[in-house]
Amino acid sequence: DGGITQSPKYLFRKEGQNVTLSCEQNLNHDAMYWYRQDPGQGLRLIYYSQIVNDFQKGDIAEGYSVSREKKESFPLTVTSAQKNPTAFYLCASSLLADPSYNEQFFGPGTRLTVL
Amino acid sequence: GENVGLHLPTLSVQEGDNSIINCAYSNSASDYFIWYKQESGKGPQFIIDIRSNMDKRQGQRVTVLLNKTVKHLSLQIAATQPGDSAVYFCAEMSGSARQLTFGSGTQLTVLP
Asked: What is the bridge-based pairing of β-strands B99-102 and A110-114?
């Protein structure tokens, strides 16, 4: 089955610890994205990557880091510098073409709770 | 049932009625729009999309209308069912980076 997987579904960490969220896709999509969602709110873009070994900051990149060593993988690290890390984290991917009118496909999300 | 703008984030409709969810987008340069459905604790699911060179697009039980003059997007759901209960987000895309900007969402509740 093709799709996007995120693991784990629930994650608990102590304050001050770094934590890495996994995102894998087997859709052969070029671009991958990380969003943060707070209760009752929309999605805000953290980082995105359009090609391997390259990524750009989104609207709320402070306190987060990413890597894109493989096309199918885009892990997100929530560092201790992120002041309010408890949230629902969503990974997405899409094809890129010129021009591109392709929707983003979302994974099931990881709910991170910092104690 | 119908909501107007993002100041009314909750919409309740009777099962079988039609629903209209509205969205005011921000960027006049946006050229692609998507409606997503998000059930509690899950990732958003694509419903329907529309390009800026169109003003209407229909899918199965859903219709999206685009009014570029007033930067307004709407999602119509025909014969609303209990399984339609979810939060609905509109998203707009613009620029060479093809980033999506999401609205704050509308909670649709279908009453029996």
From this structure: unpaired
